[in-house]
Amino acid sequence: MTQQHSVANPATRILAASLIGTTIEFFDFYIYATAAVLVFPKLFFPADDPVASTLASLATFALAFFARPLGAALFGHFGDRKGRKATLVAALMTMGPSTVAIGLLPSYQTIGIIAPILLAVFRFGQGLGLGGEWGGAVLLATENAPKNKKAWYGMFPQLGAPIGFLLSSGTFYILSKTMRDEQFLDYGWRIPFIASALLVWVGLYIRLKITETPDFIKIMNSQARVKVPVVAVFAKHPKAILLGTVATITTFLLFYIMTVFTLSWGTSALHYPRESFLIAQMISMLFFALGIPFSAVFADRKGRSNMLIASSVGIFIFGLFFAPFFSTGSLIITVAFQSIGMLLMGLNYGPVGTALAEIFPAEVRYTGASLCFTLAGILGASLTPYLATTLATSYGLSYVGYYLSYGAFISIAALLAARPLMKGNES
Question: Can you list the alpha helix ranges (DSSP code H) found in 179-303?
């Protein structure tokens, strides 16, 4: 068998390729999240009961999180068997067309029940692609990183989340300000979905310029590839899968409470103007982005587990004060509330990718890290907007905060149990 040799990727190309892909993927994902609150309940579901339509729309939002583990297993298989680069390209080309198709979908009034069915199908495609995208982007960064900068390199794909969200919210804000409501509902919301095709082309161009990671080249040369990575990871690394999943729940729970739920509740029950609340969320995204590099520096110096535990404790405390800060009716206090929550999000999210990658050996790393991340998405995000809305409606906002604090508590317990797995690989 001909041996393959690693060709060094320039650091700027590595980091650009890992960042651009997750930015595109999260942009696609977040435009759906925003539209699921502002548009889809009116266009793709019967309009008899607005609350029921919103809950149905949020249910399609949840569908992608159940598709993501399938994407993690599918793309993880090829990522661990065929290579990180080719699999990353395939994942990008799965989510992109699904997003464009949503932008072209006729409404419920035009084609009836077929509209929400197709919406669910394309949403599933989004989740499938993202399930394979994130893990590959993290490995592209961390497997090319110097030993003492693993978390620093690993935070670049994580930056795709706030950048993608800013692009998404900024796009919807501009559309809302430049169009009448009927224009926005008729065709304006479709523009970011269709325009995402251009972003996918840019990401594809950059990724085709990179070479394979050194760690995968070593696997190829030593013939260490496993036949079925998803079977191997559950058979040989069940503790890592369990603890990695539970430890990551909080990052999903916090993010989707602070974005999807607060947008829905803030613009309905609290009666904030849509444009004003979108601005508040965009400001908070700057704090999210600020927290990510700070957490990476701390994680490289003091350890990934220490950073994750410290941020999770902060989230636990934040949950206890959720209702008093979010229910004041003051936009200024709401901006501060959003910013604190998203700063904590950045501190927690920054080292997650590096930490999950390091608890698995290279031959099953794509599959293992992706499965932990996507399974945590099911537990921490898929039904969160739905459950948070139900809790707030039935029991009050305080119970949304308790829900968040409980998630942080179980993640802290998992992180403490996972310390031995992480410690051996931390700088």
Answer: 181-183, 190-207, 214-221, 229-236, 238-256, 262-268, 274-302
Q: Please provide the CATH number assigned to the domain covering 11-422.
A: 1.20.1250.20
What's the CA gap between 100 and 339, in Å, rounded?
A: 31
User: Hey, where are the domains in the chain?
Assistant: 11-422
Q: Express each pLDDT in 81-119 by its tens digit.
A: 988 888 988 888 888 888 889 899 888 778 878 888 888
Burial 190-201 (b: 16+ CB within 10 A, else e): bbbbeebeebbe
> Pick from 268, 235, 243: which is nearest to 369 by CA?
243
Report how far apart the first and last C-alpha atoms of the chain are (Å, whole number).
Answer: 35
User: What's the whole-model pTM score?
Assistant: 0.86
Angle between helices 150-178 and 190-207 (to 10 degrees): 150
Three-state DSSP class for 244?
A: helix
- pLDDT category at 205 given cuts 50, 70, 90 is confident
